[in-house]
Amino acid sequence: MSERAKPWVIDGDGHVLEPRDLWEKNLPAEYRDVAIKVVTNADTDMEDECVDGLAVVPGWATTNGWARSPLSRRADVSGWRWEELPAAGRDPKARVAELDREGIDVAVLYPSLGLLLGGIRDPRHAVLACRVYNDWLAEFCSAAPERLIGIAALPLQDPEACPGEARRAVDELGMRGVFVRPANGYGNYLAHHPVFDPLWATVQELGVPVGFHPAGVTDTFGAATVYGQTLWTGHVAAPEPGVMGRETGDEFAFGKTLHFLFDDTMQLTMLIGTGLLDRFPELKVLILECGVGWLPHWIDKLDHWIEVVPWQRPLELKPSEYVQRQVWVSADPDETTLPYVVSATGADRIIWASDYPHMDVLESEPSATAELYENMRGMLESDQAAIAGENARALYGLGA
């Protein structure tokens, strides 16, 4: 990448569609039965997304490739196979063609099936599964290394193995960041526990961001599990891992909107409130896929709370100051509140993300970038350029 006159356009959180049998083919034989996979359910004629031998996304694995599909197709996904999902999720050359169509210079890539890596319970399995994914993603991105940027998965199930995998992914594989799931219980620990301090010290030293990307499934104990179970069942008893909890048979229309927001806001609040960002003042934190409309309210509330209850935990800065120093948040291209958020918080901590090829963009809305530009209309050109790509370029360390 070289310097240029026009601003960068960078998709800060796109997704790949891994082969359904990526882990089955590449893990030792002892883990193949419990590997992450997509399985065709003979009873429903639908695709199940599985981890640890459990169908944690029963029937709806194809939602990972809903981009630009019509509502009629989304209403009945029976017969829809993983391999029929958009080629741009599975093939790097097709992805570059998609970027050209959208006017996007660079896509930063996170997983689809790999979002289940946080649900693996066996630490050794988790370490090996993350290595399989990271190696595969590095090869995928190598087809167009200036256009496709990989973000590595970390096996927090094994805290001692994490720093080494982070360093391998960045130094050897060329990844420009790492990711974990927010508010996700990794064994007995959450991400802010001091057992992970060597990991965050390593990531801080590497100078890459850690992205907290929700999965929205109940494959392990965490915020999505607790709130998801409450919504589906009407009770709050902690479920067994892998239990979706739809015992009542009722459907709830806004599951993802709540799961992702709860997970992300809980994680950010814990990073600030437990003092982790005091311990690692140069750690770059990226909160992904729950939009930015909540941000002004949340940091305003946290600032007020720490002011009126200062004895609860002494912090070096106000919560809003941590955000301005080391936290970035991804906006959705369809967020109509973006000008308001920028007026309240400024533009320098906001990137945007397409989520392609996941479910967000309908067939009737063929361009994510067109939506983004429409919703930034009237903003300062410098703010539009920052959100469209310059912030992500600096965050991920891309270009000149």
Please identify which CATH superfamily we are dealing with.
Metal-dependent hydrolases
CATH class type: Alpha Beta
Count of helical regions: 15
Q: State the helicity in percent bands.
A: 25-40%
Comma- or semicolon-separated keywords:
400 residues, three-stranded parallel beta sheet, alpha/beta, TIM Barrel, six-stranded parallel beta sheet, globular, 12% strand
Describe the 3D structure:
The protein is built from 15 helices and 12 strands. It has a single domain, classed as TIM Barrel (Alpha-Beta Barrel). It has helices at residues 22-26, 71-75, 87-90, 92-102, 123-141, 162-172, 197-206, 223-233, 255-273, 276-279, 295-308, 319-326, 338-345, 368-375, 381-396, and strands spanning 10-15, 37-41, 46-51, 54-57, 106-110, 148-150, 152-153, 178-180, 209-212, 284-287, 327-331, 350-352. It has a 6-stranded parallel sheet. The chain is an alpha/beta fold. The chain is globular. Residues 230-239 and 241-250 have low confidence and may be disordered.
In short, what is this structure?
With 400 residues, the chain is an alpha/beta fold. It has helices at 22-26, 71-75, 87-90, 92-102, 123-141, 162-172, 197-206, 223-233, 255-273, 276-279, 295-308, 319-326, 338-345, 368-375, 381-396; strands spanning 10-15, 37-41, 46-51, 54-57, 106-110, 148-150, 152-153, 178-180, 209-212, 284-287, 327-331, 350-352. The strands form 3 sheets. Strands 7-8-9-10-11-12 form a 6-stranded parallel β-sheet.
